[in-house]
Amino acid sequence: MGVRKFRSVEDMPGAPSARPLDPENLRLAFGLMTLGRLVPLVYQPGVWKFRSPDAFLEWRDARVLALSRQQVKKEP
Q: Considering the chain, what is the average pLDDT of its residues?
C-alpha cells in the first residue's frame, strides 16, 4: 500500500460509513470507549501471575469487556 499525499484535509476521502444496526458497530464502540478510557478501569491490589503473555492479554481483554458491560448497565 503506497503513501498518498494531500494538499489539505478537504482533499482527503472520508471514513467509510458503517451499516446501521450492524453488530460490528457495537464492538467498535466498546473498543473506542476503552481506547479513550471512557470506561474507568479499576485495579485490584495484589500480584497477578500468568503462564504466558497471551494468557495475560486474554485475561485483560475479558476483564475490560466485563467492566464495560457493567458500565453500560449502570447508565439509564
A: 80
Task: Report the alpha-carbon distance of residue 58 to residue 40 in Å, rounded.
Answer: 19
Of the candidates 75, 71, 76, 74, which has an alpha carbon nearest to the alpha carbon of residue 30?
71
- As a dihedral over the C-alpha atoms of residue 70, residue 71, residue 72, residue 76, rounded to 10 degrees, the angle is 120
Q: Which tens digits make up the pLDDT trace of 11-48?
A: 988 887 878 888 888 888 877 777 766 656 667 788 88
Q: Which of 36, 32, 30 lies closest to 67, judged by CA?
A: 30
69 is in which domain, residue-wise?
43-76
Domains in the chain: how many in total?
1
